[in-house]
Design brief:
heterodimer, A: about 55 residues, mainly alpha, 2 helices, about 60% helix, B: about 550 residues, globular
């Protein structure tokens, strides 16, 4: 493979894989905002990141 | 069951991972593994990838968030369908009628998409039983495919009974309707939890096998030359509008935006549930399936066995020839080839079915929410409708009816829906309210630049695509100057093409009438909006 093709392939793969691993690691770590049964989570939910930001400001 | 104020039809997702797998399953479809590599190879390789990622950032991801936002907002008023979602945002009598397109497009696409999906089920079976073994040339496999589709060339041998495509279509449709009848958590979520891991396992196995294929005698090409074929940048192509439109189109189709399925799925969430992180996770899963896995299987395999020139000719002859003729030729020359064939067509089948079950969700929600019908009754009634019109495609494939529906609903219709969505959510609802709505319960804050992109760049980009395609494709197709498949018009096919268009128009008229009936039946006031689903008595 030519260097330019390797660069494009590596860049493309890094971008999509990085985005997937970042989003899933964040998602699996923060099971805060999913409450489909309406009963509430086992522990009180933390404020959303955006809500925390709003309070700070 | 949802009792938290969100969710339409008293249904809900059972788990967050189930929701994301279902959303990703909806997005990951046949296009990820057949259309993407062909488009990349035909549009400048690395140059296509540059325009592809620009389209992803300016069009794909913003539209994903907009659709999740519209859907969840509609769900707060127990509206899992676009007419209701639009009416919840835009308090104008026209809103619900504009939303009729959101019932017609997914229904029409589902009917012909299930037929194509049935080919993958059939070829998985033919691979397992080695039915096509012995057809070791590209031409031989194309003849085999055409025999299965009951459109053999004149004088060509026939390998299948006439009823074979009908049987596989009916079986595939039955599975789709069965899953749909079991509901969101009991059917669609379970299918995604089973189907998506299988899809990824099959794709990883196939990508691994393809990457280590040895160079073939007399050909001398390696799979890495196939990757070079996809990724080698041809910078001269960056100035061509066609490359930008091809990549924008691919982003559009691959993420299933405009199909009204993301909105329907998101309507089963409450305002306490995150949609920003879920949205980006779904898009990233789809992109991984497309860029990393989709690009590593079909084209590199074709290059290894047919050389760069041969693979280019195959790619230009169409995605179906690549998937249903080239790949079986390759499998016949590999150890455990029939099992690899099962993996390939099984992968395509799961990619297809996790998308097609989503397509009837909006219209199912409409009948359940507005007319109070039971889910099972709606699902099986829609199944009967899909069967009748699907048989039309099986029977008249050679007359271009499938291409006609694919163009007007599966191509042009998607862009029309997306334009309406972005205008209603970002302009009529106002950017400030849309932004606030998307961030309710959000686990991540969307970078502020996307507010500008969603408000101005995405709609302009979409209107440009709509205008360009309208001028270059839609008008000549409508005037019968060329077919939806791209070839010259055969006068003998004109009555079939006219009938195919008339059926879409009929669907649209019926949708408008049903919407009117629903609004009268439920005494909705267009100017006041709907009551919140959590019985607070507040108006929208």
């Amino acid at each position: 493979m030519s260097t330019s093709a390797i660069v494009f392939m590596a860049g493309s793969w890094t971008f999509v894989l990085g985005l997937m691993f970042w989003s899933f690691s964040k998602l699996l770590k923060d099971q805060k905002h999913f409450d489909p049964d309406g009963l509430g989570p086992a522990v009180p939910p933390e404020p959303a990141e955006t809500e925390r930001g709003a309070k700070r400001s | 069951m949802a009792s938290n104020g969100g969710g339409s039809s008293n249904e809900a997702w059972g788990s967050r991972i189930g929701l994301i797998l279902a959303m990703a399953g909806n997005a990951v479809g046949l296009g990820n593994f057949l259309r993407f590599p062909r488009q990349a190879a035909a549009n400048g390789g690395g140059s296509f990838m540059i325009t592809y990622f620009i389209a992803l950032l300016l069009l794909g991801i913003p539209l994903m968030w907009i659709e999740w936002g519209i859907g969840r907002h509609g769900g707060q008023y127990r509206k899992g369908h676009i007419p209701g979602m639009f009416a919840a945002i835009w308090k104008h009598p026209a809103a619900k009628y504009v939303g009729a397109v959101g019932l017609v497009v997914p229904l029409v696409v589902m009917i012909y998409y299930t037929y194509i999906e049935s080919w993958t089920a059939a070829f998985a079976w033919f691979s397992l039983t080695k039915d096509y073994w012995g057809h070791t040339t590209q031409e031989g496999m194309i003849a085999y495919l055409q025999s299965f589709q009951s459109i053999p060339a004149e004088g060509a041998p026939v390998y299948h009974h006439e009823y074979t495509p009908y049987a596989f279509f009916i079986g595939t449709l039955f599975i789709n309707i069965f899953v749909l009848s079991k509901g969101i958590s009991g059917g669609i979520e379970k299918l995604a939890k089973i189907g998506m891991p299988i899809l990824f396992v099959f794709a990883i196995i196939l990508a691994g096998v393809v990457l280590f294929l040895p160079a073939q005698p007399g050909i001398g090409a390696t799979p890495w030359q196939g990757l070079e074929f996809i990724y080698k940048p041809d910078y001269s192509r960056l100035g061509e509008p066609g490359v930008w439109l091809a990549s924008a189109g691919q982003i559009f189709f691959t993420l299933s935006v405009g199909m009204c399925t993301l909105t329907a799925y998101a309507s089963y969430l409450s305002k306490k549930d995150d949609i920003t992180l879920n949205g980006i996770a779904t898009a990233a899963t789809n992109e991984t399936a497309e860029v990393v896995l989709g690009g590593t299987i079909a084209i590199p395999a074709a290059v290894t066995f047919f050389g760069v020139t041969g693979a280019m000719a195959i790619a230009q002859s169409g995605s179906f020839n690549l998937g249903f003729a080239t790949m079986p030729v390759v499998f016949q020359q590999l150890p455990f080839g029939n099992l690899l064939g099962v993996a390939w067509f099984g992968l395509l089948f799961f990619a297809g079915i996790t998308s097609s079950v989503a397509m009837l969700t909006p219209i199912t929600a409409f009948f359940r929410e507005e007319f109070g019908f039971k889910r099972e009754s709606v699902a099986w009634s829609l199944g009967a409708l899909c069967l009748v019109f699907g048989l039309m495609h099986v029977h008249w494939l050679q007359h271009g009816v499938l291409d006609e529906w694919d163009y007007w609903a599966g191509t042009f219709g998607l862009v029309v829906v997306a334009v309406l969505e972005v205008i209603i959510f970002m302009w009529i609802f106002t950017p400030a309210k849309a932004w606030e709505s998307m961030h309710q319960g959000a686990d991540i804050r969307i970078p502020q630049i996307f507010k500008f992109i969603m408000t101005y760049v995405t709609p302009i980009y979409l209107l440009f695509i709509l205008g360009w395609w309208g001028w270059v494709d839609a008008l000549p197709i409508l005037l019968n100057e060329k077919t939806a498949g791209g070839g010259p018009v055969n006068p003998a096919d004109t009555p079939y093409i006219t009938l195919a268009r008339a059926i879409i128009v009929l669907f649209a008229i019926v949708a408008v009438v049903l919407i009117k009936m629903a609004w009268v039946r439920n005494k909705y006031d267009d100017r006041k909006g709907f009551a919140l689903a959590d019985h607070t008595g507040e108006a929208a």
